[in-house]
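Pasting as-is:
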Amino acid sequence: MRQLDVFAPKLSFDSVDLCGQPMNHLVILAHPNPNSFCAGIRDAVLDAAGQSGHQVKLRDLYALNWNPVLSGQDIVSMRAHQTPVDITEEQSYLAWADLITFIYPVWWSGMPAILKGYIDRCFSNGFAFRAGPDGIEKLLAGKRAVVFHTMGSSAESYRKSGLDDALDSAMTAGMMKFVGIEVVQDIRFVNVPKSTDDERAAMIEHAKETIRGL
């Protein structure tokens, strides 16, 4: 078996060791296939989180039939302090969480539209951030995140194309850092369609070890 094809870029944050601390753990899955490898990662994360004593809640966006479209009416309603119920429900989960784990495939150089729409609608002005006298106030500061991406090509190809840097800029530095969430682990499972059963099993174990090590 070839070496496990996983790469985790260096993060720009000073991560805090959370080992042994009880935490509220929100898991967000964005994959339409209930039998996907991402679903396998979900199961591994839930298992390891439970073993670690986390209080865990799962939001499977496709199973929830989540509406990813930020509409004009959404914006009008939020400005009138009448945030739509589906958004306030998800924001209650985000507010509850100490740790958020995102699990999704990389499609067309980014996350699935349903997850981008979740962030568009739920990481809203006044909930996730706001403009203050000294600039943007990060209202989700103190929360941490783990990100699992699944990808179809090799780590080398993503580095050469610059996609790995683009993912950093979008998810870690762009979305999470903007609202104050610290990404403590960013794991990219690459060559997934070409991997063997043994290699996938090793990736699943890697996911478990990542969660156990927090």
